[in-house]
Design brief:
- By secondary structure, this protein is α+β, with helices and mostly antiparallel strands.
- The chain folds into four domains: 122 residues, no CATH class; 104 residues, no CATH class; 53 residues, Roll (SH3 type barrels); 52 residues, OB fold (Dihydrolipoamide Acetyltransferase, E2P) (Beta Barrel).
- Helix content is 17%, strand content 47%.
- It has five helices and 25 strands.
- The strands form seven sheets. Strands 12-13-11-15-14 form a five-stranded mixed sheet, covered by helices on one side. It has a five-stranded antiparallel sheet with strand order 19-18-17-16-20.
- β1 and β2 form a beta hairpin.
Length: 342
């Protein structure tokens, strides 16, 4: 048991020889600077907190900036913090921060006030993007030298979605610009790692050929070489659903992935796997969109009768036992003979 040197009261615990009431009497537990500057990017609208830029509502950002600047004395432990902001003009707010602190097991409240000033600026990411900064170029091409509108739209949607996913955890990643060029499209990217990941993703999805080409563009202030890298992705001519020729067999391409693909032989409807290294041997015989439609006349077990799409003669076609046959089927002519395409 000790006693307070100021009021003489006995107390179990003391701070600097004072009981808790005397120690708290007239003492400020918290403090704030006269003003706090909150920087906002005029391009993306995000606010700077430490080394991060975050998207928040204006009122929330103002109060968070004041709370982040709060200082608490050593012997007090903050338990809860609440804020209240009053707008003085669109760029100046008066913010009061009320804090409940624990001092030797005793709860005490204190408040402090500051002025939060909103300052316009441009974040590093937007500064680079507005300045057309890029470290990599993703070139999307095809083996035929002509990228169809459908392929272009499909690949660009994949690129945009992938960049959006990666940028959610790394805001320095962005697309600088896209350019339509002869034979394909060029995508300018903010980082080499982003270009590499996109090239790998497209290559795995389409089983495409890739190539990297670095180019020296200068030196840093400490003498290090600076490079930009061009990632070429050459899409194959074939697509899932096409009728292709592989090792002398006419097949339907049923699947493509990073490991290779799968083919269904149109003669016996057996499927086989194709290694990625062998995918370059595939040749397109008939594009999926060019396959003909034939009207079904009848079906008996593993055979159907259809009307030839050219002369309307009756033709017998072999089909898989479990094939779902509708009013019409897709067919392809091979050496003047019609074959069913599942």
């Amino acid at each position: 048991m000790s006693f307070c040197v100021k009021c003489g009261r006995d107390c179990e615990e003391s701070l600097d020889g004072l009981c808790i009431d005397c120690w708290l009497d007239g003492r400020k537990l918290t403090s704030l600077p006269h003003h706090v500057d909150l920087r906002v990017c005029t391009n993306c609208g995000e606010y700077e907190f430490g080394d991060r830029w975050l998207r928040r509502e204006k009122a929330v950002a103002v109060q968070d900036a004041a709370a982040d600047a709060l200082a608490v004395i050593r012997d007090a432990v903050p338990v809860s913090v609440s804020t209240q902001a009053v707008e003085q003009d669109p760029h100046v707010y008066s913010v009061t921060v009320r804090t409940t602190c624990d001092v030797m097991g005793y709860e005490a409240e204190d408040e402090a006030t500051t002025i939060v000033r909103i300052k316009n600026t441009v974040c590093r990411r937007c500064s680079r993007q507005l300045g057309s900064y890029y470290e990599a170029i993703l070139q999307i091409r095809t083996g035929s030298g002509r990228l169809s509108e459908e392929d272009r739209e499909e690949t660009l949607v994949m690129v945009e979605n992938s960049v959006a996913r990666q940028a959610a955890t790394n805001r320095s990643l962005f697309i600088t610009k896209m350019e339509l060029v002869t034979g394909g499209v060029d995508v300018y990217l903010s980082s080499m790692s982003l270009g590499k990941s996109l090239a790998r993703e497209l290559a795995d999805f389409y089983c495409a050929e890739t190539k990297e080409s670095p180019k020296l563009v200068g030196q840093t202030t400490d003498g290090q070489d600076m490079y930009r890298i061009t990632y070429l992705v050459r899409l194959p001519e074939y697509h899932v659903g096409d009728v292709v020729l592989f090792q002398g067999h006419h097949c339907k391409l049923t699947r493509v992935n990073g490991n290779g693909g799968r083919l269904m032989d149109l003669m016996d409807f057996r499927e086989r796997a194709v290694r990625r290294a062998d995918m370059s041997d595939i040749r397109v015989y008939e594009k999926a969109e060019d396959l003909r439609e034939a009207t079904v006349v009848s079906r008996s077990g593993s055979e159907i009768q259809v009307l030839h799409p050219d002369n309307y003669s009756t033709v017998d076609l072999r089909v898989p036992e479990d094939a779902d046959i509708g009013d019409s089927v897709r067919v392809v002519a091979i050496d003047d003979v019609l074959y069913f395409v599942p």
